[in-house]
Amino acid sequence: MRDLCKAGISLLLIAAFVGFPLGCSRSASDEAIAKDIRGKISADPDTKESQVSVAAKDGKITLSGNVKSQAAQQKIEQIAREEPGTRNVDDQITIQPDAAQSAEKMNSAPAEQPKPQPMVIPAGTVLVVTTSEALSSKNSQAGQIFLATLAQPLSVGGRTAFAKGATVSGTVVTAKTKGKIKGEGELALALTSISTKGQTYQIQTNVLSSTVKGKGKRTAATTGGGAAGGALIGGLAGGGKGAGIGALVGATAGFLGGAFTGNKQIEIPAESPLSFTLSAPLTLRSPAT
């Protein structure tokens, strides 16, 4: 019985010593397989620039990392499968486009549309506006702000800069009440800005000035950039109550549709059309419509 136990123990020891080198041999074989595959990848002209890691365990090869093309990926996987001792291949390689492919994609992208050029409304352009409130030499004050709307679209080179109805601001330059015995009544206006869709642009225009002197004699002129002169139409029809203020025409337009009061004051009723001339150019970064 004792001899049988000794014989069994001997067999176990022999099996242990025999199995140990086999395990070491398998480990060494996996390392050799992985090293050989890495060498072949580095030597192949189609795969030598690939950033790939190779691991082997019990004949299973795991590939990971980045390559520049699908052809390189397929070639690496083929090298691994053809390696002696390989039982299975787990390909975890990802494909990264190379610089040439990236440049090609960039070149194929839609071309950027050119930015619109600034629009310049030149000096001398006439702005026809409609007053939103009544103005007069008697009731208005110098420095008073008044509002109007653009009566006609403002275009440059076939492009609309401001549509009809754009808000316009102006200022009362002078407002003097005519005395009953002596002195003269005077009303002078100018535009200062134009606004649309939340954008406001400062402008400079001529000054429209109308004066009434003793016994109802009236003169009208434009200053501050517009050409003075023109023909006064209408005048005082008999000099009586309600006579027309007339209109200044020619190189520039003046007050239109106004009327004198009974004591010969200058009045511009609401909704009266007035024409002003830009005395300086107006530059817009883009159409304001």
How does this structure look, described?
With 289 residues, the protein is of the alpha+beta class. The protein has two domains: 50-98, 2-Layer Sandwich (Histidine-containing Protein, Chain: A); 119-284, Type IV secretion system, VirB10/TraB/TrbI (Lipocalin, Beta Barrel). It has three helices and 20 strands. The strands form six sheets. Strands 5, 7, 10, 11, 12, 13, 14 and 19 form an eight-stranded antiparallel β-sheet that branches. A three-stranded mixed β-sheet has the order 1-2-3. It is rod-shaped and about 120 Å long. The relative contact order is 0.12.
Which key features would you list for this structure?
2 domains, Lipocalin, Histidine-containing Protein, Chain: A, 3-stranded mixed beta sheet, 3 helices, alpha+beta, 289 residues, 8-stranded antiparallel beta sheet
